[in-house]
Structure formats: C-alpha cells, structure tokens
Amino acid sequence: MTTYKHILVPVDESPISYAAVEQALALAKELKSEVTVMSVISVDPFKGVDFYKVAPAITDYFMQAEENAQLRLKDIERLFVRDGVSVNTKVIRGVAASEGIMAIANEVSADLIIMGSHGHTGFKKMVLGSVAQNVLTQSHIPVLIVKV
Fold first, then answer.
1. From residue 81, how far is each of 13, 87, 108, 129 by CA, in Å?
2. For residue 142, what are the domain limits?
3. Could you tell me which residue ranges the UspA domain spans (predicted)?
4. Mean pLDDT throughout 104-121?
5. Distance of CA 107 to the CA centre of its chain
C-alpha cells in the first residue's frame, strides 16, 4: 500500500466537504499522515466594478465569508487534534477554487488530495462547472473524490 505522508483536504460549507474530512481523518490516523485542511475564498465577481470599493454590503459579504471559513477550519482542526493527527489549516483568497487547491497542494507538498464532489452531471455540470473535475484534470498527484 502506498503511504501518503501529507493529505490535502479542501473544504467549503457543504456537507460533502465534511464527508471528505471524515475520510481524510480515518486515512491519516491509519497511515500517520500529516493533513492540511484548506478553504478558498474565490475570485471576487465584483472586482473591477466601479461601485465595489464603496459598497459596504459587498465588502461585508467577503469579510463574512472569510470569517466563516476560519471558523469552519478551526472546528475541523479540533477533530484532527482530538484524534492525534498532525493538522494545519490554510485559507487562500482571490483565486478560482481549483487554482487555489492546486497552489496549496504544491505549497505543502501534498501527495494526496481528498475532496468532496456533488456529482453534478449533464447540463447542471456544464452550467455550474466542477471544482472536483478541474482538480482531477490539473493534479499530478492522486485525488480521492468522496461522494455522498
């Protein structure tokens, strides 16, 4: 069996992310792997819009998104610490989700990515895009997709 020394787990607010966290925790305990749990605060869709800098509601939205990500990561971090697994957390800002995931994977020298996927197919996938699909095509390391 391949031993994975460093597992990367990208998370968002979805329940499927927590399913990926559970898989990563179980595998990390078994293999004594280090884990990095991360969130991406995606590219600001309002960037470049004239009113952006003067629209407090929009600024507040992104500040709240970051605060929520930090709280989520702290909660997840406690699970790993409780089970004696070495864990780090990271937030990356201002990039597309798949780009951020790949950047952190390279930064921490991850040798496995475990992430959730909603499993959208057909038209829904074409319209919404798929972070998991993008990571699968960009990654040079193994990616474990967790579906619920």
1. 20, 7, 19, 34
2. 6-146
3. 4-147
4. 89
5. 14
